[in-house]
Fold this sequence. Notes:
- The chain starts with a strand and ends with a helix.
- It has helices spanning 16-29, 40-46, 79-91, 103-114, 139-160, 175-183, 198-210, 227-235, 258-276, 296-302, 310-318; strands at residues 3-9, 33-37, 49-52, 96-101, 119-123, 163-168, 188-190, 216-221, 243-246, 282-287, 290-295.
- α2 (40-46) packs across α3 (79-91).
- By secondary structure, the chain is α/β, with parallel strands linked by helices.
- The strands form two sheets. It has a seven-stranded mixed β-sheet with strand order 3-2-1-4-5-10-11, with helices on both faces. A four-stranded parallel β-sheet has the order 7-8-6-9, with helices on both faces.
- Bound molecules: 6-O-phosphono-beta-D-fructofuranose.
- The active site is at 127 (proton acceptor).
- ADP binds at residues 21-25, 154, 185-187, 211, 213-215.
Amino acid sequence: MKRIAILTSGGDAPGMNAAIRAVARKAIFEGMEVYGINYGYAGLVAGDIRRIDTPDVGDIIQRGGTVLYSARYPEFSTEEGQLKGIEQLNKFGIEGLVVIGGDGSYHGALALTKRGFPAIGIPGTIDNDIPGTDFTIGFDTAINTVLESIDRIRDTATSHVRTFIIEVMGRNAGDIALWAGVAGGADDIVIPEHNFDMAQVAKRVRDGRDRGKKHCLIILAEGVMNGHEFAEQLKEHGDFHARVSVLGHVVRGGSPTARDRVLASKFGSYAVDLLKEGRGGLCIGILNNQVVASDIVETLESKKHQPDVSLYNLNHQISY
Ligand code: F6P
C-alpha cells in the first residue's frame, strides 16, 4: 500500500492529535504518502481531503482536540454515503484508511470494510466504551481532568459542609465516573452498569454526616440520569442541600497525558504496520498491556465493552 488517509470522527478526545502524528510520521518513514480528511465522514463524502507532510503534524502532540476536525455524520450509515465516500477515496488514489474515533466511527470503518475498502479503527474517545481494548485514547486525560475538578470541589464542599453531585460524561458507560470516583475518594459512584438504590445513597450521605464528615461527593455518570434530576430524587430521602456540578465538555478538552500520548503513538504506528502489509478490516486495542488488532466485524458484532465493575465494590469498601 502506497497511499493512505486518516480521519477523526465523533466526539474529539485528547490524544487524537498524537495519533494523527504517529500515523503520518510512521507512514512517511515507511515511504508512503499520507492524506488527511477534514471533518470525519462528512469531509470524506464531501472530498475535503488534503496531502499531509512531516511538518503538518509538527507541534501537535501536546494539543487537545483534533487538527483534522471532527463531526457526527449519521448519513454515513446509508449506502449512498458509503459509496460516495469510497468514490472520493478512489479519486485521490487512497488505498487504506485509518479511522480514529469512538463507537459511531468504528461503524463507519466496519461499513467500508464490508464494502471491500481496507479500514483500520483506532479507539479514540474519552468514554472508554469501545470493545476490543482495555483503554481508549483520551480516557486517561479525561479521568485526570475530572479528578482535578473533584479535588477542587472537595475544598469548597468541606468549607461549607456540603454534599455535591458531580455529573460526568461517558454516554452509556460508567468508566469515567468509576475511575475518577475511586481516585477522588468519592463517597458514592453511580453508574449505568450497576443498580443503585437512592435510599442507600441517602444513608451513606447521612452516615457520613453523623460521623462528622465535612464533605460528601457523589460521582454520577450521565448515562444514569442528569445531576439535577438525581438531586431531586435524593431530596425525597432527606434534605442534604446538595449542590450539582455538571463537568460536561470541559472534560473533553486539554493537553493529553503522557499515557494517552504514548498509547496514541503505539496505536498509530501499528495501524501503519497493518496497512503496509495490506491488512484492513481491523481495530486496534490494548489488552493486558499488549497492543493487539482484532477483526472489526467480529469485535463490533459480538463483543461488548464492560467497565471494571470491581472498582465499584472497592470504592464501597474503602470510601465512606
Ligand atoms: O462520546 C464522547 C462524548 O463526550 C460523551 O461522553 C457525551 O455523551 C457525548 O460525547 C456528547 O456529545 P456532543 O459533544 O455531540 O454533545
